[in-house]
Amino acid sequence: MTDLPEKDERQAKADSPIHTSGELSQAQPKPHAQNVSPSPDRQVEGQAEPQSHSQSVSPIQALADDQPNDEIEADDNEALERDSAFGDNESIASSRTSLTSGITRYRQENGRRYHAYRDGKYLFPNDEKEQDRLDLFHHVFNLLFGGKLFHAPVDNPQRVLDVGTGTGIWAIDFADQHPSSHVVGCDLSPIQPGWIPPNLEFEVDDIEDTWRHKPFNFIHMRMLGGAIKDWEALIAQAYDNLEPGGWLESVEFEVWVDCQNDGEVEMPKMIQQWQSLLTEAGERIGRTFIVAVHMKNWMEKAGFVDIREDVIKVPNSPWAKDPRWKEIGAYQQHNMLEAASAYGQAHFTRVLGWSPDEFLVLSAEVRKELKNLKYHLFSNLHIVYGQKPE
Ligand SMILES: C[S@@+](CC[C@H](N)C(=O)[O-])C[C@H]1O[C@@H](n2cnc3c(N)ncnc32)[C@H](O)[C@@H]1O
């Protein structure tokens, strides 16, 4: 098992649902505000933004206010039993683009489909199941952030890059809400829809190569843990490709499941084994999962200033008493149940040499533990943003 030097740090942070650090240590009124409704109130260029400066409580802070205690309050056992039906997987319908053969000659392996361009680089699937999971994650982020697509105080973003855009769902929403901006979504997989806002373009490319774009005002990265070989180089490249005054924002889970009540119940063993081995496989191939806890430091090193970090404790199953946290936990449980098969199959079979059947058995055990609401499972989510000096 790989040592996790950050564990102490993570544990310390896990003491509170929301943590803030960085130069701006106080919750700050946001100079910008997002139009959070889907489209009727879409913001028009030059028009005053729909939320005023008087709304000084950010959704992150609002969540913090909802959970004034260090711990998220758990629901009682009977309610948890009733809710254990949560987690039946229903897929979200999604339209997909048809594209040229080279980048769509996908690798099929053990019932899952993987990207073709730069084959073998990214070890998670890109099939419909995974796309549904990514879209569901976007919904979870909307619930967590009250519909806000970003937190950096970006003013009038003109050129925007979404690094590792996945299904492009964030980029589509961003382009919709900021019609005067030009948005680029970049990914190894051409899994984005064809019908997109006119101010958005998707490109199939490797973000670890040298970028050849005009500078951006805002660069967004979300859920890239386990994907990148040299994080410092990627962040330096983001810095170089920002206009002075431009912002970089990263949203990353720690990709580690913790148990809030680990003093009362035994830690779920199969989940521990799954994530330890996954972490080890990530280290072996040089694409670490331990990203979120380093992001602020990496941004500082690259030269970013006014860096702010918020950490939110997100339940991984519907064990919380508060209805909003329960709902978020229910969606996260669905995500985790899917992740238990997507997140690891290639790592375990290609890197650690397990047979597909051995992995299936582990994954079934992990799913069983994920469904057991006696474990108050959660993961920490880090939102970090910083500015390139003017
Ligand atoms: C977990 S998904 C996150 C997708 C999206 N950012 C979101 O939040 O929904 C990670 C994405 O990064 C893409 N990716 C991984 N390595 C990449 C690389 N070197 N260049 C471009 N995209 C990459 C994967 O193809 C995948 O779509």
From TrEMBL:
Basic and acidic residues bias (residue ranges): 1-13
GO molecular function: methyltransferase activity
Gene3D superfamilies: Vaccinia Virus protein VP39
Protein name stated in the entry: Secondary metabolism regulator
InterPro entries on file: SAM-dependent_MTases_sf
SUPFAM superfamilies: S-adenosyl-L-methionine-dependent methyltransferases
Record region (Disordered): 1-68
Comp. bias (Polar residues): 18-40, 49-59
A Pfam family annotated for this UniProt entry: Methyltransf_23
